[in-house]
Amino acid sequence: MGQLTDKELKNLKPRTRLYKVADRDGMFAAVTPTGIISFRYHYRVNGRQEVLTIGRYSAEAARKLTRAPEALDYGMDVSLAEARALLARARRQVERGDSPSRAKAEKRTASIEALTFGGWAETYFRHKADPKSGAERLADSTLAMRRSVYDRAIAGALAKLKLAEVTPQRLKSLCDEVKEKRGPAVAVHVREVVLLVFRHAQGSGLDISNPAEQIRTSAIATFEPRDRALSPSEIRMALAALDHVAAAPTLRQAVRFVLLTGVRKSEFIDATWKEIDFSAARWNIPGARMKAGKPHVVPLSDQALDILTAFRTMFGTSRYLHPGRYDGETPISNATLNRVLDTVVERIRQDNPDFQSFGVHDLRRTFSTGLNRAKFDDRWIEMSLAHAPRNRIAAVYNVNRYLTERRIMLQCWADMLDVWMKGESAKDLIADAKKRAAEVHDDELDDDL
Questions:
Q1: What is the DSSP string of 331-373?
Q2: Which UniProt keywords apply (predicted)?
C-alpha cells in the first residue's frame, strides 16, 4: 500500500469538495475546500464504525524535530511523522476495545470543566483577539474596553471561582457593588462580560447555565430613554451593518423602506398591495389605518419602488407587502423589525461600543430630522409625516397642493442616503432638489382640480 510523503502533502490543492488521500493503516489526509489538511483515522470498535481526527497537518511542524510521543495529543498541529505516532497510539486503543475518539472527547470535556472563570475569561479574550477567529474577532477598541472592565471590576471577585460557583446571586451582588463604586454603566458592562464568557464556554461544549441570563439589565441600572435621530455618519454605519446582519434580505429591505418613506411601523406592517400605485409611484394609505384618521399619500422614490418590486416578486401571492415568515395571510409581527435593528446595533458596537441603540420609530425621527437639517419647506415635511395642520381646510388643501414638491423631496432624501453611504456630501443634491421644487408650476398641480 502506498504511503504519503511530506512533499505530496505540501502539493495537495483544495477542490470544490472535500477529498481524501490514503496513507496507511486506515489513516488518510482529508483536504477541505479551504485548503486545510487534517489526518483522520477510520476504525471499527465494538461493532461501531468511527472516525478520529488525529490532527491538522502543519508544514511548520514538518520542518522541526519530531516531538516525543508523550508530548503529542489528538487535535494538535502535527507533522506526518507525528500523525503516524498518534495513529499507532490510536490503534493500540482500538486493540484494547477502547474508542480513541470517545477518549479524546472525554479528555477535552474534563479539561474544559477544570477551568476557572478566570481561565475561561482568558480563553474568551484570546479567541476574540485571534485573526483566525474570522467574524468572531472583536475590534481592538471593543476588546480593550471589555478587558479593562474585566481586569478592574471582575477578576478580583470571580477569577478563581469555578463556573458553577458564579451564581446569579453572586453576580448580582458584584454588579451592585460596582454600580455603587464605579457607576451604573460599568455595572451593566460587568454583566455583559460575564454573559459573554459563559456563552463562550457553552459554545466550547460545556453544559452549564449562564447566570447573567437570569439578571435583567434593568435590574442593575436603567437609563433614561431619549428620542433618537441618526446623523448622516450614523446612518452610514447603520446601513452598512444592516447589510451584514443575520436577517432575511427582505427584512433588511423593509428597514430601508421605512427609512425612505418616514412612515410609522404599523403603517408599513399592515400595508397591502391594493394601496400601491406603481404607475403613479404612490402609496395611498386609507384613513382607517392612519393615526389621525385621514388618508395619506406617500410619493415613492425610485429606491422605494425597487424595494417594492422585490417584495412583489417574493410575496406576490400575499395581500401584504411583507407577510409573516410562516403565514402569507398575516403580516410580520410588531417586534420583527425591532429585532433586526437590535442585531444592527450589536454589530456596530463591536467597533463602536458607545453607539446608542435605536428603534423603528427612530427611523421616522431620522427622516424628519434629516429633511429639516436640509432646510426643506417644513410644510412638505409635516405632510410627509402625516401631521395634519390645525386648520382643517388648509389640511385638505395642502395634502394635495404639495404632492409634486414632496415627490421631489423624497427622491432627494433617497439619493441623500445613497451618497452618505459612499461617504460623500449631499449638499449639491439638496440644492438641486430645492431649486426644482421651487419651479413647480400650477399646471403640474393636477390634484387641485
A1: BPPTTHHHHHHHHHHHHHHTT-TTPPP--HHHHHHHHHHHHHH
A2: DNA integration, DNA recombination, DNA-binding
Ranking 131-140, 209-218, 417-426 by mean pLDDT, the lowest is 131-140
Is residue 1 over pLDDT 50?
A: no
CB 384 within 8 A of CB 409: yes
Q: How many CB atoms lie within 10 A of CB 275?
A: 17
Query: At 56, is the secondary structure helix, strand, or coil?
Result: strand
Last residue of a domain, one of 198, 220, 242: 220
Residue 20, judged by CB atoms within 10 A of its CB (0-12, 13-18, 19+), counts as exposed
C-alpha cell at 10: 505540501
Confidence at 449, pLDDT banded by 50, 70, 90: very low
- The per-residue pLDDT for range 281-330, each reduced to its tens digit, is 999 999 899 988 889 999 999 999 999 999 999 888 899 999 988 888 88
Q: What rounded mean pLDDT belongs to the chain?
A: 88
pTM for the model = 0.52
Q: Are 61 and 77 in contact (CB under 8 A)?
A: yes
Convert the pLDDT of each residue in 160-195 to its tens digit: 898 889 999 999 999 999 999 988 888 999 999 999
Count other Cβ atoms within 10 Å, centred on residue 345: 18
Length of the chain: 449
- Is-contact 407 277, C-beta < 8 A? no
**CA–centroid distance for 321 within its chain:** 24
Same domain for 256 and 374, yes or no, is yes
Cell numbers given for 211 = 447566570
Question: Are residues 275 and 414 both part of a single domain?
Answer: yes
- Within 10 A of 327 (CB to CB), how many other CB atoms are there? 9
Q: Contact at 8 Å (CB) between 341 and 239?
A: no
Q: What is the identity of the amino acid at 280?
A: A
Distance, in Å, from the CA atom of 415 to the CA atom of 417, rounded to the nearest integer, reads: 5
The residue whose grid cell reads 386648520 is: 391
CB 35 within 8 A of CB 14: yes
Question: In total, how many domains does the chain have?
Answer: 3
CATH of the domain at 119: 1.10.150.130
β-strand pairing of 282-285 with 276-277: antiparallel
